[in-house]
Sequence to fold (594 residues):
Amino acid sequence: MAQLISLAQALSQPILDTIASTEMPHLTSRRQPVLKEKVLLVIYTGGTIGMKYKDGGLVPIPHALEKFLRELPILHDEEYAKKHDLNKRYGEHALVLPNNEKDSEASRIVYIIEEYNPLLDSSNMTPEDWAKIGKDIEKNYGLHDGFVILHGTDTMAYTASALSFMCEHLGKPVIITGAQVPIYDVRNDGMENLLVALLIAGTYDIPEVGLYFHDTLYRGNRVTKVDAESFGAFSSPNLAPLVTTGVNITVNWDIVWRDKSKQKFQVSTEMNQNVGLLRIFPGITATTVRAFLQPPIEGVILETYGSGNAPDKNQGLLDALKEATDSGVIIVNCTQCLRGTVSLTYATGAALEKAGVVPGADMTPEAALTKLSYVLAKKDWTLEEKKRMMKLNLRGEMIQAESEAKLCLSDSCVIQAIAKSLSLSCTEELGAVRDALTPSLACAAAKTGDIEALEALKQLGSHLFFGDYDGRTPLHVACCEGNLNAVQYLLSQGATVHAKDRYGATPLSNAVHFRHKEVVELLRKTGAHLSRDELNEAGVELCSLAARGDLEGLEIWILAGADLTKPGPDGQTALQVAQSAGQKEVVATFFSCS
Fold:
């Protein structure tokens, strides 16, 4: 706390000096902000959103959606596309959202549509299709800032849940959306769902799989479809929305899930399909249950009454469950109720646990089933490890154990002193003070490597991934300074390696420019990569370093993943420049890397 108070007392000048003195390496080569664009990939799998009526029914129409969107000014700015040569830079399927007049400084959101062939009705969705979506995300991960998946509503909750588990160590937004009424109809929900999904994915750092529908972004593995005829088709019974939209867009940052493993993003496509759902009902017989649990079944979601209860007087049923769990079948207990969690309050629930049934907390059936399929497919995990994983909160899919009470920022002496001097009293004003001060305080602490101050800020309810007035996050600053411990701490708290400041610079490019090799190695291990613009500009920097014979600089850029074949301004690659300049060591280094 003492470090935090000292920082607050110093706000008037030293913090500003601290931030100002942190050289911005990206300004040494260009003084003006780059063209600010966020690039999203839209994976169009099918669904009602792109269907048309044919022979009395709705069917997907290939290649119609993109053409239609190009003609809608609210979803495509043709003037901007032509002026900035969008098709040449991103391909023929690129579109761009119009500018928001209220925020002219915001990044333009470019989105590229990848349409599946054939387009699918979501009722036909299979784990193989989930794997294809996951692999397409993985293949395009380094070139895009986020992903929007257009999907039918019938199995959307299953797909959202499955992708949340398949996408391991996710650091970018993946939002699934669709429509109840085709986008071509005069009165439809598809246009708004697509537009807002794009805005959220391109604007907010929400690095998880979400499902956007009817003014609300939900966590994907917390959702179930509850209405076949309303625009509000989905509900998240046991978790508040991540984002609500109205006149304003409100993000519930306190519940946004962040991977803290510091590992590189990957997609695990293996899903065990020998799983099923078994719903308990009055009068269910042991014979029925025993028949259901026969091979090849390996995992079952048991949907029970209330808080996880089943008939404990039916000993035959309990024996059938015990026989299955003893033989290696994993059975997970989930409630049939929309809201609530499995507990051992009643003897009928405790009897299931004695039979070897794993409690499923408050998971939806969709999340529980896809999680079980994901866990069972892990060949290097033992049976006991798989059971343990079903009890753990892997992606925010179930209730977390109660954490220790945290200090409230509005109660801290720092904020109270500032509030008193500014005559602030209401919660909204105190929150505004917190949000204004946190980035500067955290950046100052990151510059000096003061982890205690960063921890104090976190304990006071602050988020350590927000950027300052220039969009520079504490991770940017720590990477500039080469404070490895601070970088490790920030990553462990969920700081994203994909954040960009107003000049388009990432933490990785900051570490490269200041030649902090250990930081670059850590960031790369965590999944950091040079952005599309940084990769394009690397050719100029590589040629300059090659001409000077700067081996250290070249090695840092190579370590960061720079493309050695990128030409410089005169069309020559760095290798050709080195050969022309007689830089034999550089030439040897290039050949050793090829």
Q: What stands out?
A: The first strand starts at residue 37 and ends at 46. The chain has 24 helices and 19 strands. The CA atoms of residues 134 and 409 lie 39 Å apart. Residues 37-267 form a domain with the Rossmann fold fold (CATH 3.40.50.1170).
